[in-house]
Amino acid sequence: MTLQDNVSMRVVDDENLCFEILSFCDEFPTRNNFLFLSKHIFEILTTEKAFKWRLDRLHKEYGVYFPPVLAPKQSWKSLYIEVLPRRYLWDGKKKKRATPEAYHDSNRNKVAVCTRMKPLASTTSDDSTPELGRVTLPLHQRLSLIRMSRNLKSNRDAIQVLKMQGGWFAEKWKEERKATVLAAGNKPEKRPEADDNDEAPPPSLSGGVHAIDPIKSRLFVVDPTKGLREFSFDCVLPSPSSQDETYEKCARQLVCDFINGSNATCLAYGQTGSGKTYTMFGPHDPNQPFMSFDQYSATWGIVPRAIHEVFEAINYRRAKVKVAVDPAISMSYIDIYGENVSDLLRKRAPCGHSKVAAQRYVLSGAAEKKVDSFSDAMDLLNQGEKEKRMASTAMNERSSRAHTILVLTLRQTVAKTRQVKTSRLFLVDLGGSEKLKKSQANSSNQRTKEAVNINLGLLALKKCVEALNSTSTSRKPYVPYADSKLTMLLRAGLGGNSKSCVVICGAQDTSHARETLNALAFGRAVSKVTNTFNRGDEEAMLQHLLAEVDRAIAACEEKIKQNERWETKEEKHHDIYGEIEVRKTSQLVGAESYRLELETLLHRRAQLAGATLDRDGGSPTIGFGNAHEYGMGQKYVSGNE
Q1: Average pLDDT in the chain
Q2: Chain centroid offset of residue 635 CA
């Protein structure tokens, strides 16, 4: 064995020693050439741990910040390849002129979409409201579910089961059976009239969100117009999800881009009461008139967490990064109420009287206040919270009646070249989209105007994001920023080299199913994730839903076996003679919550498989398509009718 091989083997035995040696070498070409010293070293330097070490060196040597936690579907290798071109960010070197094709590829699909669903309420007071109620699935989906759940070979066998269940063409099948009996010379059996009323309703599913699959970033929804549908996005958070997980998956990468000199935007979209303000800022203490950020809390939302990470990154850069960069942070906090743009840090002072004037006022720095520390930023955040416009509606006790935008501006001056790089982070709590009749905002002219202005701003935002995510290669799409003051102010955060994320907030309760469907439709319209379904894909979706329910049932039954036990209790009673009688009773305890969970899962599987459900009525069934013409539920009326 040669001396070179001996050295290589000693380095291989201690990979930390390998990293330590490379820390004294330059990135190019020494570290890259080191890869080919031996096969063993090549294996070491191409692991995920090695790429994370490379990212750490990029940060310390070149001042390129990277997130400490990976985003969904991301590896340290892919992140390293993504941030590597930024290594000359602070040395003033001229970049190679980008071609139109490169410009298109770098700006394509910049708007990511994440979804966050509120946990299902344990008790829903208005569960009997006919918002969506129960939905009858289309015939091909119902037959597929019957065939899969009963292991049938053909749709012909599934139709025979469907005949017994009732539902589709039930009246026609009754007439056929009656005609067959008469043709055989027999008299049809007479049933009491009450029997018709006691018949089980046709198999149906509860409208709205049916299942969430965060692993594959998709959720399944029962749509009254299309049956079971699959919505895929860049990230689908589980329900419930923590504030920490929401920040990691939805906003942290944007904060990193902001620190590295790019503009970024994070928006929360959804119906009123769906958890947008909770996601962006955190919970509100009902005992306090305003939200407070005096003490750190695990329930803090995206805004305070983002501010905290920015200051942590700046402090780390000052202490350990070799590149001398002098950062200056300022903060703006404004709201858009109808046609008025107000400065929340200056007691709602107006920010211009036109779209252009408001944009110039905010982006020129006139609305900024300098912050030197995290505590200074929290003081300004508390100050702005007191100026927010809130009102109580039927859907939300503290409903935001305006679009709120917090802008962090970071100006980083390189000491060597005196070059200044300015980046902005837009954190937006959008006003809730709402149906006037349901939120009862039409009870006064002021609330009606507020709702209309909010919805107009959201419509303009949708058009802009759709244009930004356009996949057209023929020409650059026109982005209608001038349609609204909201989009004019967000132009710097949506266009150019910026990156954006829309967090879709929704509710799983059946009573809010229509609003959740509308929010998901908005997310699909602006999302870069596209799906082209065929019959095979739909069959796979239905098979997945059945398999997931069966897996959950098996897991729940196993938990019951592990936790359930017999417990004997003694009860003392006095008989008629005054003597004490001791009675011993045995009962199963220890798995009551799992029993309730199992009951819910079995009910869900029965719904999917089309088994006979409870006959206690509940929400009225809405027939898919023209199913109401066959006696299957009520006709579906969209919110626009």
Answers
A1: 77
A2: 31
Q: Are 111 and 500 in contact (CB under 8 A)?
A: yes
Distance CA 238, CA 115 (A): 9
Cβ–Cβ under 8 Å, residues 425 and 251: no
Identify whether the C-beta of residue 116 lies closer than 8 Å to the C-beta of residue 245. Answer: no
CB 213 within 8 A of CB 143: no
Quick: pLDDT tens for 168-204: 666 666 677 677 766 766 655 555 544 444 455 566 7
Q: Do 358 and 341 contact (CB within 8 A), yes or no?
A: yes
Which residue, 514, 471, 331, is CA-closest to 408? 331
Most confident of 290-294, 309-313, 442-446: 309-313
Q: For residue range 157-171, list pLDDT tens digits in order.
A: 888 888 777 666 666
Taking the C-alpha atoms of residue 60 and residue 317, their distance in angstroms, rounded to an integer, is 8
Nearest to 56 by CA among 285, 446, 316: 316
CA angle (302 as vertex; 297, 308 as ends), nearest 5: 65
User: Is-contact 306 251, C-beta < 8 A?
Assistant: yes
Amino acid in the structure at residue 101: E
Residues 6+ apart with CB under 8 A from 203: 136, 137, 142, 165, 167, 607, 610, 611, 613
Q: Residue 199, by phi and psi: left (phi above 0), alpha (psi -120 to 50) or beta?
A: beta
Residue 478 CA, distance from chain mean position: 28
Side-chain half-sphere exposure of 302, counting CA atoms within 13 A: 30
Is the C-alpha dihedral spanning 292, 296, 301, 306 positive or negative? positive
Task: Let me know the angle formed at the C-alpha of 609 by 606 and 613, rounded to the nearest 5 degrees.
Answer: 35
How far is Cα 251 from Cα 117, in angstroms, rounded to an integer?
A: 17
Instruction: Give the ranges where 23-124 is alpha helix by DSSP (H).
Output: 32-34, 39-44, 48-62, 76-83, 100-107
| Structure tokens that stand for 105 in this block | 């590829």
Q: How many residues does the chain have?
A: 641
Nearest to 517 by CA among 170, 84, 210, 63: 210
